[in-house]
Protein: Glycerophosphodiester phosphodiesterase
Organism: Seonamhaeicola algicola
Amino acid sequence: MKILNYIVVFLVVFACKEQQENVSKMKIDQGKKVEVQGHRGERGHSPENTIIGFKNAILKGVDVIELDVVISKDKKVVVSHEPYMSSLYVLTPQGDSISKAEEKQYNLYQMPYDSIKTFEVGLKGNIKFPEQKRIKAYKPLLSEVIDSIEAFVSAHKLTPVGYNIEIKSVPSQYEVYQPQPGVMVDLVMQVLNTKTIAGKWNIQSFDPAILNEMHEKYPDVTLAYLVSKGDFKENLKLLNFTPHIYSPNYKLIKTKTVVDTIKAKNMKLIPWTVNDSIAISEQIHFGVDGIITDYPERVLIYNNL
């Protein structure tokens, strides 16, 4: 019985100590404002990469909406994370599920946009995000997203938001699920050049070829380099320039020293995708410039302390 009592006391003391450390960390973080980017809108609670999801993220107070673009058969810039219809959350026009085995047969690069738009992307939900609301939605065009968001912000007198636009590109998929980097870059820029959102957007990509092409053709564009692994110095060797933003998997940012080293290269540091509250607090404590998250409210709470 005494042993049990000792265990209980130990657990209580440990819990109190952990709580004190968390409170202490929160105090350290007070006053530090980080840029909050809603990953694919606010994927934790709304269908990803949809106009309703972006609007919901804006209503929560994000600074930037993060979104992905691919290219359709008729050369339209479509907002979608995959260049195909994902079995995770897409339904056919008839309302049927798509199996994992057949999802890549629905190749967006081989489908005209009028056909793409008929697929349902919000009613199935997403098993990875059980709190996500089921809302009727479709894959919009980049031009439509910008027009809708700008009108929404203006109508509701909200603070203007930025756009972090990821060009989805994988070398092994050139001419299969996407055009060559040069063509892809030009198609995206054709859309952006028609919009009055100067200074409010940037391009990001995991593919160095996309970033190098963009920098060469459009040197004034703000660029972010997405990385999932590796040493940042080695990663940067794949670029012909130093990007404005370095955007790694947050698990690569383990100490403040790493943050300081990267920022010393005159790059902003915006990690992805940080959803856990403890990890969010830790990244803020390290001194990152922004956070990409599926749950904007979990980051905003620190900005409001």
